[in-house]
Design brief:
The complex is a heterotrimer of chains A (224), B (327) and C (246). With 224 residues, chain A is mainly α. In chain A, 80% of the residues lie in helices and 0% in strands. Chain A is elongated and about 75 Å long. Chain A: Belongs to the binding-protein-dependent transport system permease family.
Chain lengths: 224, 327, 246
């Protein structure tokens, strides 16, 4: 099945695939950033908010978490038509969905901070907002690290689903390569190659984030 | 190469919850399932003579379309004051546009469920030995199991499906198997998708079960050994029954995950829910109706699944284990 | 008649030698208590007898059978040696009754109905007939430990090992467990007990072995060891125990 000629074909198109990998990484970063910017306040609203704001956040969260990402992307592309750019559409789709998950990571982390911390902060004269801002949030952020790490991997892998809206990221480029006429024999080689790139990316970022969370961990099991 | 999956992250995927005390949500689900079951019975089980035509909706779309049209006209004549009426007209128009596609979506939903259930069930069969090997196996077995889970979890599901469908001669082999695609036996692509979801889900389930096994107190196996059970029997009768209960929240995650990601089977030509929605949308240009409908279908399936898993968790809970976990 | 013979047992964890040549013997029906400061090797000694821990050198014989012979089936050996743990280790997913039937059914191959009957008898003997269907999480520590004893007894062992059976219990629950153990001793069970429970040792023990840093420093009947300890280490330790309210 694996043939030298097909490997040569993969090597010839290495730059083409590498550009795809760059798009994949770029999309991952923009999506996570959008997810963070929306998800962090959303998580806080779910914990500390009340009334209609909290309702809206939690219902949109359920919708975003309960719908396949491919459907979300196509809705954004064909129904809402937020942008002609597949990259922008994919960023918004993955970003919104990631926000829905990141809000849960924050929510859990905020809730896991001991209530005594809030009381102690209030006791030294901080306002509720100051206590959240200076005492609860810094601890919650550290506790969110493992969740983020998980989210990072998920978003990275799900960038491949932008295939559905024709974004020329890594997987799409792999698909385009072997569907060229006369190149269908190279399909396995192409996918082994791009899978390897994905693996290196997920594995590498995971180990890097492990290091990072060790570095920022507070002694005495704060990160566990 | 440690793959400690953070417990916080495991929690995250379970949070597609619905308040069961909201009667409208429950009523909607009951109506959805009632209609689905009726549709499947009609389309799959009743002989042609007795059945309602399988490509025709139970409810005609025309009245909705007419109502939408006349309401829209009235709304327009009222000017600004007609805005609420216009919204109702829009909704009716949506219903009219959605109705003709319902039979196809019901058929797609059937395949979505088949893919999900088969993936999680076969995946479980692989996941138990994988996780037991990870926790109790020797060096070689541990390494093998770890490599498998890391490799699967480190690459996109869509890439895995492409490898199986385009890269390996699986399709040729399955196509030769007698009976494939006949009657209730799914077609070739469905089998490839099931294999893909099985292999993928096994890796994730193995991680859930592994961390659940590790949360079973080591003293449990010691006690089992002390009354004369062999290691295998101790794992089988003492550790697994407890560990699998701890793994239930993980399964809720996995079930929800598979329902949503089974949509990727569309890219290897499986005519599941998303495939049906997209192909009708492409034919009719009714993107809004079809994709919103698809989203609603998935949402209904996902919410049903998490309700079901909550029920399973409550049923299997015993004091001290499962349900609301103590300690 | 000798039931248990322990001869020159050595055991190390890495660089640390935990047992430095321990020897003693027990006759059938004997009740012996192992005492000594923490880290002296008591629990390790106990676990070497049913091979939950493996010895480095020396030998152990149970009823004439060499425990460490390659021919000896460790699972069969363990049926003859009941063990009661400090933290109970009841099977958390099984009721009190099922905790006992599991071994009967899966190890001894007793049919379901008979296993249930026998298990119920054993529960009654430890005074827990009414708790048969309770899960461990629903039982007090003292009740859990009594189920633990019943579970071990159900296998009809020749020897019972108790690894600090009362030290995880609240003080007011110690009595009920000690009573069950004393009752067991009176009925002639051979028991090797790691415990600092002076009351039990004084009233039920035939011999007390005092262990210190991996060696038996002194052995003898309770009155001798408690009244006229020969070794300074023994008297120091016993004084400490008594002043701690034991």
């Amino acid at each position: 099945m694996l043939q030298a000629g097909d490997w040569a074909f993969v090597l010839d198109n290495f730059d083409y695939l590498l550009t795809g990998a760059a798009v994949t990484v770029g999309l991952t970063l923009t999506s996570l950033l959008l997810g963070f910017l929306l998800g962090f306040p959303a998580g806080a609203v779910e914990v500390y908010g009340e009334g209609i704001a909290q309702r809206i956040v939690s219902v949109s969260g359920v919708v975003l978490r309960g719908t396949p990402i491919v459907v979300i992307m196509l809705v954004l592309f064909f129904v809402v038509s937020i942008s002609k750019s597949a990259f922008v559409t994919a960023t918004v789709g993955l970003g919104l969905r990631s926000a829905a998950y990141q809000s849960q990571i924050f929510r859990g982390a905020l809730q896991s901070v001991d209530e005594g911390q809030m009381e102690a902060a209030r006791a030294v004269g901080m306002s509720r907002f100051e206590a959240i801002r200076h005492v609860v949030v810094p601890q919650a952020l550290r506790r969110s690290m493992p969740g983020f790490q998980n989210e990072f991997t998920i978003v990275l892998k799900d960038t491949s689903i932008a295939f559905a809206i024709g974004l020329a990221e890594l997987l799409t480029r792999g698909y385009d390569l072997f569907t060229q006429s006369g190149r269908s024999t190279a399909v396995l080689e192409v996918f082994v190659a791009i899978s390897a790139v994905y693996f290196v990316l997920t594995f590498g970022t995971n180990r890097a984030l492990d290091r990072l969370s060790e570095y920022y961990a507070i002694p005495s099991g704060e990160s566990s | 190469m440690s793959a400690e999956e953070p417990s916080v992250a495991d929690e995250v995927r379970t949070t597609v919850t619905v308040d069961t005390d909201r009667p409208w949500a429950l009523a909607g689900l009951v109506a959805f399932w009632g209609w689905l079951l009726l549709r499947w019975t009609n389309d799959f089980l009743l002989p042609d003579g007795l059945a309602f035509p399988s490509d025709q909706s139970f409810v005609p779309a025309a009245p909705f379309a007419t109502a939408a049209e006349s309401l829209g006209a009235t709304a327009a004549s009222l000017g600004v004051a007609g805005a609420p009426l216009d919204v109702v007209a829009g909704l009716l128009g949506f219903v009219a546009g959605a109705i003709p596609s319902l039979p196809s979506l019901a058929r797609g939903a059937w395949l979505t469920i088949v893919l999900t259930v088969a993936g999680i069930a076969f995946g479980f069969v692989l996941a138990v030995p994988l996780s037991v090997a990870r926790v109790y196996g020797g060096r070689g077995l541990r390494w093998l199991s770890l490599s498998y889970t890391e490799l699967i979890r480190g690459t996109p599901l869509l890439a895995q499906l492409f490898v199986l469908y385009f890269g390996l001669p699986l399709t040729q082999i399955i196509r030769e198997v007698p009976g494939v695609g006949v009657g209730f036996v799914p077609a070739t692509a469905v089998w490839v998708a099931i294999i893909g979801f099985t292999l993928n889900s096994a890796a994730y389930q193995a991680e859930y079960i592994r961390s659940a096994l590790e949360s079973v107190d080591a003293g449990q196996l010691t006690a089992a050994r002390s009354i004369g059970l062999s290691k295998v029997d101790g794992i089988r009768y003492v550790v697994l029954p407890q560990g699998l209960r701890y793994a239930i929240p993980g399964w809720s995650n996995e079930l929800v995950y598979l329902i949503k990601y089974s949509s990727l089977a569309a890219f290897i030509t499986v005519r599941e829910l998303f495939f049906q929605a997209e192909s009708i949308a492409n034919d009719t240009f009714r993107y809004t109706e079809l994709f919103v409908l698809a989203a609603l279908f998935y949402l209904a399936l996902v919410v049903s699944a998490s309700l079901l898993m909550n029920l399973v968790e409550d049923r299997t809970a015993i004091p001290g284990i499962g349900g609301k976990r103590q300690a | 008649m000798t039931l248990l013979r322990v001869e020159d047992v050595h055991k190390s964890y890495g660089d640390e030698e935990v047992l430095k040549g321990v020897s003693f013997e027990m006759d059938r029906g004997d009740v012996d208590v192992l005492m000594g400061p923490s880290g002296s090797g008591k629990s390790t000694m106990l676990r070497c007898i049913n091979r939950l821990t493996e010895i480095d050198s020396g030998g152990i014989w149970l009823d004439g059978t060499p425990v460490y012979d390659p021919e000896t089936d460790v699972n069969e050996l363990r049926q003859d040696v009941g063990m009661v743990f400090q933290d109970f280790n009841l099977f958390a997913h099984l009721t009190a009754l099922e905790n006992i039937t599991l071994g009967l059914k899966r190890v001894l191959g007793v049919p379901e109905a008979e296993a249930t009957e026998r298990a119920a008898d054993h529960l009654a003997q430890v005074g827990l007939a009414a708790q048969a269907d309770s899960y461990p999480a629903e039982l007090s520590g003292g009740q859990q430990q009594r189920v633990g004893i019943a579970r071990a007894l159900a296998m009809e062992p020749k020897l019972m090992l108790f690894d600090e059976p009362t030290s995880a219990l609240d003080p007011e629950l110690v009595g009920e467990v000690v009573e069950v153990m004393r009752d067991l001793a009176e009925r002639g069970m051979t028991m090797l007990v790691v415990s600092h429970e002076m009351g039990f040792a004084r009233s039920a023990a035939d011999d007390i072995h005092f262990l210190d840093s991996g060696r038996i420093v002194e052995s003898g009947p309770p009155e001798q060891l408690f009244q006229r300890p020969e070794h300074d280490r023994t008297s120091e330790f016993l004084t400490g125990l008594q002043s701690n309210g034991h």
